[in-house]
Design brief:
mainly alpha; Serum Albumin, Chain A, Domain 1; 6 helices; elongated; WPP domain-containing protein; nucleus; WPP_sf; cytoplasm
Amino acid sequence: MAEDAPNAAAEGGQPAPPEGSADAAPSATAGAKAAEALLPSLSIWPPSQRTRDAVVRRLVQTLAAPSVLSQRYGAVPEPEAERAAAAVEAEAFAAASKSAAAESPASIEEGIEVLQAYSKEVSRRLLELAKTRSAAATAPAEGSVQEAEDSSATAPAAEGSVQEAEDSSATAPAAEEAAVKEE
């Protein structure tokens, strides 16, 4: 023990108690608390702003760049995708935060559940956005198709008018011939 004392003094600490002594347990607990104080706390919820920004960037990529979603529902121009992605993320974060505030995640497991709810909410809202945007884009095209169908429905009537005009012109010479014969 005499040999441990100079090393402990040089390190600025106290010599370690022998393993079998009663002082060993409090020292281990103090060491664990000191280690916890040095380590950053692991917090699952809420995500950092850096993480939220990464989610928005990924949503923009999904909307604007070739992806399964953009191939199915159409790509979104990047400026519009940035605004929509930020709105989707903010709404999903607010919804998940509201549920988290009610439950107040105290453990890592509860934080993971809230994070999963946030992820599902982002996905659901992104899909809704893509579907409504696609439906809005196809609605005017369908209106154009409907107008074309309406005009083609009136086309036979117009063709009938042309036919009637042709018939009247065909009967006009006959009427003229009849008028000439009567004279």
